[in-house]
Amino acid sequence: MKFGGTSVGDTDRIKAIAVHVAAAVATGDQIAVVVSAMAGQTDDLVGLTRTASVAPDAREQDAVVASGEQVSAALLALALQDAGVTARSWLGWQLPIRTDGQHGRARIEHIDTGEIEAGLKRGEVAVVAGFQGVGPGCRVTTLGRGGSDLTAVALAAALKADRCDIHTDVSGVFTADPRIVARARRLDKVAFEEMMEVASSGAKVLQLRSVEIALNYGVRLRVLSSFGDDSGTLIVAEDEVVEKRVVSAIASSRDEARITLLGLADGVAAAARVFGPLAAANINVDMIVQNLAADGQAANVTFTVPRSELASALTILEAAKPEINYRSLVHDSAIAKVSAIGVGMRSHAGVAQQMFAALTDKGIGIEAISTSEIKISVLIPEEHTELAVLTLHTAYGLDVED
User: Fold this and answer.
1) pLDDT digits over 226-246, tens only?
2) Which one, out of 72, 80, 119, 368, has a CA that is 20 to 30 A from the CA of 316?
């Protein structure tokens, strides 16, 4: 069971979680719980490091930021003990959760579950601090935003758990963001592949890497509300999704920035020189469009990066200009990505044409397109994000109840 920041926002909510966990223990289940820091605490801790240092050392920043989960794990263990449940808290280094040394965005390499499994067999609830591990040199590491999801799914895989429940402030996975589309509906089941595309397309329900691990290790996931009794949404293998809609969900992301390199010499051969330095800096490149310039010799390349990484990407590309050999660079962050996602696309034609026609009818310009087997994404002006989501939700029949 994993509980996010809003679920552990104060001690009253932590006590409510303790009651919920105690009820699960009473059924005879063995329970491991992963917790995030209290809502807003991680941002506060990051802010503290920046008041102490102009350019905080990533290793020390991880040591500070990871303390938020330490507090919530210990508080939940105390609340469980008060509820009559045997419990103890575990920090990332205590299990340990072994990671690589990439501070701020570490990858889990191994979880030692020996001691925690012994405790579970004794009826002890393990309360694990999410978002953290231990890297080379016994340094505390953090797993990046949404890292508590990753901790929970990786721990579930290591323990061979029957299921991993992600308790959050929404009651499941919806056909679109309910804050944009009032008629958005909760989905009972979503295929792993669909959930990966939803997560990569801007939805904040689950962290992408956690879904990848769930798929790779066959961990059944359930997303449900911490504050209600709904059954939530199950994330399962595709063959368990009986009703495969052509399009299951519409997702959008405003965390996009576009970069265009003009006048690239050597055309296609220049791509490695462009994306190599970005990959080395762990900057994720998403949509890519390449075409020949007007002279038929050089090429222009347009691609997107997370808006939060635009400044870093520009610095890298400017420094590498002599090696990349481009004439000029332009960028824009007033854009958004809107995606239609569904495993049913595999067996239906015309899905892309339907999207383009619906957006064109509303006067929404399409600036770039990318596709996968079960997803179509378009880049549009940011000001049209809500209109595009509403339009596509209706166009693909998602407004209608089953």
Assistant:
1) 877 678 999 988 888 766 688
2) 368
